[in-house]
Amino acid sequence: MSRESSLLPEIYDRLLQAYGPQHWWPAEEPFEVMVGAVLTQSTAWTNVEKAIDSLKSAGALEPAALRRLSLHEVAVLVRSSGFYHVKARKLKALVEWLGAYRDDLRRLRDRGLPELRRELLGVYGVGEETADSILLYALDRPVFVIDAYTRRTVDRIGLAVEPKSYAGYQALFMRHLPPDARLFNEYHALLVQHGKTTCRKVPRCPECCLLKVCHYGQATVKAARVVL
DNA sequence: GCCCAGGTGGGTA
DNA sequence: TACCCACATGGG
User: Fold this and answer.
1) Nucleotide nearest to A44 (CA to C1')
2) What is residue A36's DSSP assignment?
3) Pick from A36, A108, A132, A215: most CB atoms within 10 A?
4) Domain with residues A3-23+145-221, CATH architecture
5) Least confident residue range of A17-21, A34-38, A111-115, A197-201
6) Which 18-47 residues of chain A approach strand B with CB closer than 7 Å?
């Protein structure tokens, strides 16, 4: 039993205790989640919400509607999310891809996970994090999403990651946790919440509740108080 | 005014 | 392969 095997569930419990359930994308339409996954790239969620509201108001939060609109029209609607020219292009690429499935997301469920992920990565504007966000949050697939907060938190704790790539970090979580979409969903959201709450700049934040996990070893983890 | 946000694609060495 | 940079609004 590696150190990570017991620590990852432990970290989850601590985060859940500290922050409570995050309810990311609960009961949303899968397509809306996909759009959100693209629009939130390097962007605060509050700005994404405005863009999604604009799309909704324009009746454009559907694949067919987005295909009908011009690139410029889509750009205007998603302006508040920043990088709006390139994001409009990305949304266009996404709905073009969905068109091959007749916009029926249920057809996606028939595809194998590795194959579906490869396809998503082939869509302009969909990188690893966005692909996995779509797979997990929109399509309910048990894939762990890695983002900047996750990497930073893992590094601070001192968990072993090899290689230090997206796949490396992802393997760390997926090796030591059961393949449960609900768990991965909540775990990732908690890591983001934790990253937002703790200091972003200092490599080792003395106020971080999880830091004690690495510095004092597992034996003292249970005794260590959660300091937030 | 300054910093940052739930990244990605393209260019260069 | 490994960096670097453009992309851009809105809130603290």
Assistant:
1) B5
2) H
3) A132
4) Orthogonal Bundle (1.10)
5) A197-201
6) 24-25, 36-37, 40-45, 47
